[in-house]
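To illustrate the input format used throughout this study, we show a single complete record. The first block contains the structure-token representation of the backbone; no residue identities are included at this stage. The design step must infer an amino acid for every position from geometry alone.
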């Protein structure tokens, strides 16, 4: 009989519409009715929106936060929980585009996100199982080592603090044997994103942020004062921050700048004590791979393994339906079997998907729009938003208060335009297909090497 990982009915038994980390809050916030007024309206209750709200309250501003579902519903409540800096960025891609000096500042922004979140957890008393383990980007086949070393050299030239772990160093750390060598970033680690985002929500409520849930922004009217309309009421303020990330194009903004991509995750049943001991992996480093579409694996506080990404998806027109992605879950289960052959009998307890947004240059998309420049937005950061979209809260709040933070200045650049449909659908689908084939070749070679018992 095939392994449990493969036979589990991932859709009906394990699919979670709100991800595997959290439940809907027991204290749902009211729907917006009537008229409310504030210094700033934040739209979207994820890492970006909640941190912006907290930073604004710390500066004495009154804040209304409008959330379409509940604060934590989006990618912030569904991600893998890697709190990382620049590791995993395609440094070459953007360094060529923006030049060495600005690329160095952009890497500085990514790196600054890690201590920002660490300070936020401490300041707001958020317990979210954070382990300061560092993160390894690890090869599963010898053919990936060259890319790792090249990316590391570029990253270090741009100021990213990285270190190469050879085969012996990986084994000394107890990192599972399928991961041959890697680039290690000592800063950051893994956390429970559900606990983090709900901790932010609680802190925001305690700080006096007026959160309205089930209160999606439907339309807004610009002017010196902005009026934001929901189904039940309206909010007015001199500033509005759209912290809606992958959902922003549905509001009629950034549709020509970012592409929403579906990212999926699966979580195993807890490992038994014996399995955990046999696995080693004492440092619990978050692991990601240098595939074209990365694989990532991490242990959780409940001793399960969460595996993410591996197979991305794009919905025609940039849609973000909250539906299962069975092909992606099957691909993730197969990746888990490849990298953890000793855990064949481990079941899958949950699978889910969420949406990130990607610019063609893979850089953050942050700025302002409107005739008065008082509609701010933050999107992009693709799969690296735990640190960056949190730090974005500081930059956006400062901007609302009239200050241009140096890191915001560093991020300003011309984002390339995306293609109109149906060209965009064809381009993204083709790119995903080609990268999928290239990754399949690497995986085939790694499997072959493993069955022959030679170092892959
Ligand atoms: C499966 C997965 C794994 C990932 N793993 C990692 C990782 O390990 N590390 C990492 O750094 N990043 C990771 N990411 C990316 C990271 O989660 C995101 O970059 C980050 O959470 C984005 O935060 P945000 O606040 O910008 O957006 P979101 O968290 O998506 O928040 C946007 C909010 O806006 C709300 N909204 C939408 N439309 C409206 C409207 N009209 N009115 C009001 N509200 C609205 C949504 O309901 C949502 O709550 C992952 C993402 C996914 C999906």
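Output of the design step:
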């Amino acid at each position: 009989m095939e392994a449990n990982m493969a036979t589990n009915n991932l859709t009906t038994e394990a699919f979670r519409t709100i991800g595997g980390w959290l439940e809907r809050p027991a204290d749902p916030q009211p729907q917006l009715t009537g008229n409310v007024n504030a210094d700033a309206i934040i739209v979207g209750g994820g890492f970006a929106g909640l941190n912006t709200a907290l930073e604004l309250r710390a500066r004495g501003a009154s804040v209304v936060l409008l959330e379409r579902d509940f604060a934590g519903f989006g990618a912030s409540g569904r991600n893998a929980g890697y709190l990382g800096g620049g590791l995993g960025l395609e440094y070459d891609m953007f360094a060529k585009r923006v030049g060495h000096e600005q690329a160095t500042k952009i890497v500085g922004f990514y790196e600054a996100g890690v201590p920002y979140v660490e300070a936020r957890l401490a300041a707001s008393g958020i317990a979210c199982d954070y382990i300061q383990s560092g993160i390894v980007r690890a090869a599963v086949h010898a053919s990936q080592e060259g890319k790792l070393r090249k990316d590391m050299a570029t990253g270090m030239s741009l100021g990213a603090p990285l270190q190469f772990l050879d085969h012996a160093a990986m084994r000394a750390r107890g990192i599972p044997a399928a991961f041959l060598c890697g680039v290690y970033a000592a800063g950051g680690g893994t956390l429970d994103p559900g606990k983090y985002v709900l901790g932010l929500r609680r802190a925001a409520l305690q700080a006096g942020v007026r959160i309205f849930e089930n209160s999606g922004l439907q339309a807004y009217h610009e002017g010196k004062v902005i009026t934001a309309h929901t189904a039940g009421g309206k909010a007015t303020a001199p500033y509005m921050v759209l912290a809606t990330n992958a959902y922003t194009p549905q509001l009629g903004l950034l549709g020509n700048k970012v592409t929403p991509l579906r990212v999926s995750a699966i979580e195993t049943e807890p490992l038994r004590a014996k399995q955990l001991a046999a696995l080693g992996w004492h440092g619990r480093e978050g692991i990601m791979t240098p595939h074209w579409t990365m694989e990532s694996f991490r242990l959780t506080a409940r001793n399960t393994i969460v595996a993410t990404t591996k197979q991305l998806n794009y919905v025609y027109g940039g849609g973000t339906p909250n539906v299962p992605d069975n092909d992606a879950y099957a691909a993730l289960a197969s990746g888990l079997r490849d990298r953890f052959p000793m855990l064949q009998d481990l079941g899958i307890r949950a699978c889910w998907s969420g949406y990130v947004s990607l610019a063609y240059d893979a850089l953050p998309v942050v700025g302002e729009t409107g005739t008065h420049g008082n509609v701010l937005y933050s999107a992009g950061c693709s799969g690296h938003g735990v640190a960056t979209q949190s730090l974005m809260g500081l930059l956006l709040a400062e901007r609302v208060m009239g200050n241009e933070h140096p890191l915001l200045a560093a991020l300003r650049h011309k984002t390339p335009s995306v293609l109109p449909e149906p060209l965009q659908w064809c381009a993204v689908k083709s790119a995903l297909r080609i990268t999928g084939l290239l990754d399949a070749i690497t995986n085939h070679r790694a499997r072959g090497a493993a069955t022959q018992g030679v170092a892959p």
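Structural context for interpreting the output: Residues 4-411 form a domain with the FAD/NAD(P)-binding domain fold (CATH 3.50.50.60). The longest strand covers residues 348-358.
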